[in-house]
Design a protein that fits this description.
By secondary structure, the chain is mainly α. It contains 8 helices and 3 strands; from the N terminus they run ααβββαααααα. Helices cover 73% and strands 6% of the residues. The protein is elongated and about 70 Å long.
């Protein structure tokens, strides 16, 4: 059991390190492409509003939100929330982020199936994700001490199911994010919103942003598999 948990902490440590490296590289990329000023002179907010208009979306508001890399689309109140830097600045990084978040608005307007699935999982994950690991560990302790008969395994399995929802959410997030980036880049290119150099910067920035979600999904899958092994006979 102890060595098993040690393996888990090593696994989580390794994934955390990779996540930090990718996140750090993402920040460097955005800093780099924030210096590539747009020839059209449009700010991130203007880019966002034009993309929404070009897709016939009139009921989504573009607003500024505090912080850095806090950009997101809120399907509940239909707002594209851009961080202050992205909202105001006129560079390749801002264009990429603004168009990407509008890509989510387009997904919402067209009932993109993966976004719909993810939205349905949100309330479930909000409840289960924070407690799933505690439920699993509690079940494993009951199994090890043979308390409550075979109830411990059922409790652990319930925890695995709860963790499974969070893992599924992370996996479904991948096509949602990649598709939003694809829509953003296609629009930037087809509408000649950026020069070839600016497009390359936008593409590279979004590529590294997508990798943060990929690392998160891999980490979620690895954690679920580890705990499943602990519950179903992989314990030392």
């Amino acid at each position: 059991m102890i060595s098993g948990y040690m393996g888990y902490y090593i696994l989580i440590g390794a994934i955390s390190l990779v996540s930090w490296l990718v996140s750090n590289q993402l920040k460097k990329k955005f800093a780099k492409y924030s210096k590539v000023h747009l020839r059209n002179g449009m700010s991130g907010a203007e880019i966002a509003r034009k993309m929404l208009a070009d897709h016939g979306i009139r009921n989504v508001e573009v607003i500024s939100t505090p912080g850095r890399l806090t950009d997101h689309y809120n399907p509940v109140n239909k707002t594209v929330n851009l961080s202050e830097a992205v909202y105001n600045q006129k560079n390749a990084a801002a264009a990429a982020v603004a168009a990407h978040e509008c890509g989510h608005a387009v997904q919402h307007a067209t009932a993109y199936q993966w976004l719909t699935m993810r939205s349905k999982l949100v309330p479930v994950v909000q409840i289960t994700s924070s407690m799933s690991q505690f439920v699993i560990i509690g079940g494993i302790i009951l199994m090890a001490t043979n308390m409550l008969g075979g109830t411990g395994q059922y409790i652990a399995i319930a925890g695995l199911i709860m963790m499974g929802f969070a893992t599924l959410f992370s996996v479904i997030t991948l096509p949602v994010e990649y598709d939003a980036s694809h829509r953003a880049l296609a629009w930037l290119k087809n509408k000649n919103m950026v020069t070839p150099e600016e497009y390359k910067g936008s593409e590279d920035a979004l590529k590294w942003a997508a990798r943060t979600y990929l690392v998160a999904a891999i980490g979620a899958i690895a954690s679920l598999l580890f705990w499943a092994l602990q519950v179903f006979g992989g314990r030392d």
